[in-house]
Design goal:
There is one protein chain. The N and C termini lie far apart (31 Å). The chain contains seven helices and five strands, in the order H-H-E-E-E-E-H-H-H-H-H-E. It has a three-stranded antiparallel β-sheet with strand order 1-2-5, with no helix packed on it. A two-stranded antiparallel ribbon has the order 3-4. By secondary structure, it is of the alpha+beta class. Bound molecules: iron/sulfur cluster (2 copies). The site of one iron/sulfur cluster (SF4) has 8 residues, from loops.
Length: 145
C-alpha cells in the first residue's frame, strides 16, 4: 500500500500511474460556473478519449496533441478541484482514503466500471455541439450518468 506511505514526489512512475483508476472522468468537457465556481461535468469526450476502453488513445503524447490536457503530476494545486471527488489523485491530495472499488484495492481493473464510476460506453463525441446542446449533457461529477 505504497499510496499510504509515500508522498506523490516519492512515488515511482509506475506507482503514480497505477493510482489512475481508469474512470475517464477527467477526459470529458468541463466548465466552471462563473457565479458559484462549481465545476460542471459533461459526457462530451475529448477527441482522444476511447469510449470503449475508457482510456486515452495516445496517452504518451496527450499533452502535445490536446492543448488543454494537463499532466496531473505537474499540475498546480488549484487544479485538483477540476478532478472528480472519486479520483485517487484528488483523494490522496486531500488526505482521504481510496474507495474499495479502486483497482489497487480490489485487484480487478474492471471494478471501477462495475461500481458505476467510470464513463465507459457513456460518452458522446465532441464534434458539432452548440452551447444549447452542451447544457443537456451535464452529468453528476462523481456518480453515475
Ligand atoms: S479522474 Fe483521476 S482516476 Fe479517473 S481517469 Fe482521470 S486521473 Fe484517472
Ligand atoms: S488527451 Fe487523452 S488524457 Fe488528455 S483529456 Fe484527452 S483523452 Fe484524456
Amino acid at each position: 500500500m505504497f499510496w499510504k506511505e509515500k508522498t506523490f514526489e516519492a512515488m515511482s512512475d509506475d506507482e503514480w500511474e497505477s493510482l489512475c483508476d481508469g474512470c475517464g472522468r477527467c477526459c470529458v468537457w468541463k466548465f466552471e460556473d462563473a457565479d458559484s465556481g462549481e465545476i460542471l461535468y459533461t459526457d462530451i469526450r475529448c477527441q482522444l478519449f476511447d469510449d470503449a476502453s475508457c482510456r486515452c488513445h495516445d496517452y504518451q503524447h496527450r499533452c502535445n496533441r490536446v492543448s488543454d490536457c494537463m499532466n496531473i503530476r505537474d499540475m498546480e494545486d488549484k487544479y485538483y478541484a477540476w478532478l472528480p471527488g472519486t479520483c485517487a489523485y484528488r483523494l490522496l491530495h486531500e488526505g482521504k482514503p481510496l474507495f474499495d472499488w479502486h483497482p489497487l484495492i480490489s485487484g480487478d481493473p474492471a471494478s471501477v466500471h462495475q461500481a458505476g464510476i467510470s464513463l465507459q460506453h457513456n460518452t458522446v463525441c465532441g464534434e458539432h455541439f452548440s452551447k444549447a446542446d452542451i447544457v443537456r449533457h451535464i452529468i453528476d461529477p462523481d456518480g453515475k450518468k
